[in-house]
Amino acid sequence: MRSLHSSSATAAPAVIVIFGAAGDLTKRKLIPALFNLEAQNLLPSQIAMVGIDRVAMNSDTYRQTMGSDMASYVGNGFEQNLWDDNVDKVYYMPGDFRDPDSYQQLKTLLLEVDNEQGTPGNYLFYLATPPSFFGIIASELARAGLNEESEGHWRRIIIEKPFGSDLQSARALNAALHESFEEHQIYRIDHYLGKETVQNMMAYRFGNGTVEPIWNYRYIDHVQITVAESLGVEDRASYYEEAGALRDMIANHLLAVLSIVAMEPPNSFDADAIRDEQTKVLKAIEPFSPQRVLTDTVRGQYGEAVLDNTQHLHAYRDEPGIASDSKTETYVALRLKINSWRWAGVPFYLRTGKRMHDRYSEVVIQYKHAPNMMFRGALKRHKNVEPDRLVLRIQPNEGISMQFNAKVPGTEFKMSQVLMDFDYDDYFEESNTASGYETLIYDCLCGDATLFKRADNIEVCWEFLQPILDVWKSLPPRDFPNYPAGSNGPEEADDLLARDGFHWKN
Ligand code: BG6
To answer: Which of 270, 362, 376, 421 is the most buried (most CB within 10 A)?
Structure first.
């Protein structure tokens, strides 16, 4: 549950100020994460939370509202006593994010909280708001002097994706944040980096002597990264219509996973050493020409389907709030190359989609065949010897498996693929309790930025994606919907791999 970096010490004393305190993210993820941290004794006694939002209510009402839902959002580990014992550390103030007066009131309230709770003036500002408020809140905090780090106390700001919607807006957002906060104070969340299984990829690659020597073009044939979701757009129509799968998933989560799979070993376990390597490998992705956008990208949108003769799944265009001629993609597949010595000639295939057959996120490393197939003669009748595959399962069924060939017992020389499997559940009890937010909030309180995105990382992702956005915009899709809900995505995505002689591992 904690990042690779952190020890089990309690986090630094601080007040966590949540902008957007009446919203869904706060209720579903942030307060439950704080609760889980408290339950694991990872928070110091001098800790408090101040919620701020437009809704008019006082701290008592806020505590009651949050308390009534907490049992369901925290799940099995919820302890009413623990909530009751800590609820007086939760404060609320109504405020308008654009109004400078609200920030003066916040400043006064923070001094009161520091007095009451013994917190030493460390403030963590969590912006659980629409992104259009990021720049405004940052600059109003600065105007009120709440960005200033002096006398040994710190001020940090957390924002969560989307970090812009293209290269230009991402640069503008970084510039706006840097006017008010220094880079070391800014913590950008990609919740995939908070996932245990994503962090474990670093442990697997760099903590084992057997992995790195064959983690390169000499042994690896190609890499597949899949984040498949079975749910549709749900109730996020207005956001998703503007975003689409490329911005919503590829620009952050999939490229984050790619950077961990493909980066060079960092020289140290220092946050910037790791983030330097991640950014470096993203910069090494071969830029897409307009021609390559046409050949090496696939976009899709789900159409209606009936599953098992019973379950009717709506087309994206029939979902509430979606335009009946929407051109928004709910599926993306890409084929990309990384221009480095390690990865020369190794294709990376990325795909993500909503309303796919299953919900699963995984990385498949497909190894090359043995250089001299001495069994070929003996295997004539069973010609398809499957290549070895390493599968890093991010979710669900978190774990790692290796598929390799073994001899089928008997007089005939026959081979069959077998599986060596590691499941988190078999080894670690605490594996499935955390949402990822626990780790990220804890790390931010500790000042450990390893799992957070740096400004240059965000911009390099958009630099790579911008040609795709441009070509897709100038050539609107004409075949949407092009995959049925509940399927494995559009046929063109299968063709993308078939051209290279591969197929998706579904
Ligand atoms: C979010 C996207 O960032 O990640 C959602 O906005 C997506 O559209 C979600 O459903 C997936 O996250 P997870 O952790 O459920 O795989």
So the answer is: 362
Ligand 1 atom closest to residue 192's alpha carbon, by position in its atom list:
14
Q: Which residues pair with 186 in a beta bridge?
A: 157
As its CATH architecture, domain 194-369+449-498 has 2-Layer Sandwich (3.30)
pLDDT at 134 over 80: yes
Q: Which strands form 399-408's sheet, in the order they lie side by side? A: 297-300, 331-336, 348-353, 220-228, 360-367, 389-395, 399-408, 414-423
Enumerate the β-bridge partners of residue 344.
none
String of b and e for 457-470 (b: at least 16 CB within 10 Å)?
A: bbbbbbbbbbbbbe
Mark whether 191 is an active-site residue. no
459 lines ligand 1 (CB under 6 A): no
Enter the CATH code of domain 14-160.
3.40.50.720
pLDDT at 385: 81
Ligand 1 contact, 196 CB (< 6 A): no
Where are the chain's structural domains? 14-160, 194-369+449-498
In which band, very low, low, confident or very high, does the pLDDT at 5 lie, cut at 50, 70 and 90?
very low
What is the Cα–Cα distance from 436 to 192, expressed in whole angstroms? 8
- In DSSP terms, 127 is beta-bridged to 19, 159
The span from the CA of 143 to the CA of 136, in Å, is 10
Ligand 1 midpoint to CA 171 (Å): 23
Do the Cβ atoms of 198 and 394 come closer than 8 Å?
Answer: yes
How does the average pLDDT of the chain come out, rounded? 93
- With CA atoms as reference, report the closest residue to 303 among 478, 483, 479, 476: 483
pLDDT band at 379 (very low <50, low <70, confident <90, very high): low
Quote the pLDDT of residue 378.
Answer: 60
What is the separation of C-alpha 263 from the centre of its chain, rounded to a whole number of angstroms?
17
Active site residue: 153, 191, 253, 357, which one?
253
Q: What angle do helix axes 31-39 and 437-446 make, rounded to 10 degrees?
A: 70
Q: CA-based angle 383:386:392, to the nearest 5?
A: 175
Tokens of 155: 């001020």
For residue 249, how far is its CA from the centre of ligand 1 (angstroms)?
7
Please name every residue paired with 487 in a beta bridge, in sequence order, or none if there are none.
Answer: 356
According to the model, what pLDDT value does residue 69 have? 82
State the Cα–Cα distance between residues 246 and 301, nearest whole angstrom: 12
Ligand 1 contacts CB of residue 319 (under 6 A): no
State whether the beta carbon of 229 lies less than 6 angstroms from ligand 1: yes
Task: Look at residue 382 and tell me whether its pLDDT is greater than 60.
Answer: no
Residue 429: predicted pLDDT: 73
3-state SS string over 268-320? Answer: CCCHHHHHHHHHHHHHCECCCCHHHHHHHEEEECEECEEECCCEEECCHHHCC
